[in-house]
Amino acid sequence: MPASHTVAVLLDDALLTLNRAVGVLRRRNVAIEHLALRPSDTAGVSRLTFVLKTDPATADRVVQQFHKIVGVRDVMLVATEDSTTEV
Predict the structure, then answer these.
(1) CB contact at 8 A, 10 and 72
(2) Is residue 45 a contact partner of residue 13, using CB atoms and an 8 Å limit?
(3) Residue 23 needs a FRET pair 20 to 30 A away by CA distance; which of 2, 9, 32, 69 works?
């Protein structure tokens, strides 16, 4: 069952690194509810935060793929929220 998974990535402040990161999301073809890129507290490092709407196994695979990207310093699965709602 799809749920919302928030992922935070610390990456080098380089266009090539950002291109690689977005390429992983594009190739995985997962639904993205939110995407934000902002500077981090460390000079030369940006923070990419995104919310995936997918199952837990796919979210874990995306996190594992981000760990393999050159220029990525850290990847954290910050939160998971169940998307079931009662009517």
Answers:
(1) yes
(2) yes
(3) 2
Distance CA 30, CA 42 (A): 29
pTM of the shown model: 0.86
Q: What is the pLDDT of residue 87?
A: 40
9: which 2 tokens? 């990535």
Does domain 3-85 fall into CATH 3.30.70.260?
Answer: yes
Measured distance CA(16)–CA(2) in Å, rounded: 31
**Residue showing tokens 């981000």:** 66
Domain boundaries, the chain: 3-85
Pick the residue with more confidence: 2 or 57?
Answer: 57
For every residue of 14-55, DSSP letters joined together read -HHHHHHHHHHHHHHT-EEEEEEEEE-SSTTEEEEEEEEEE-
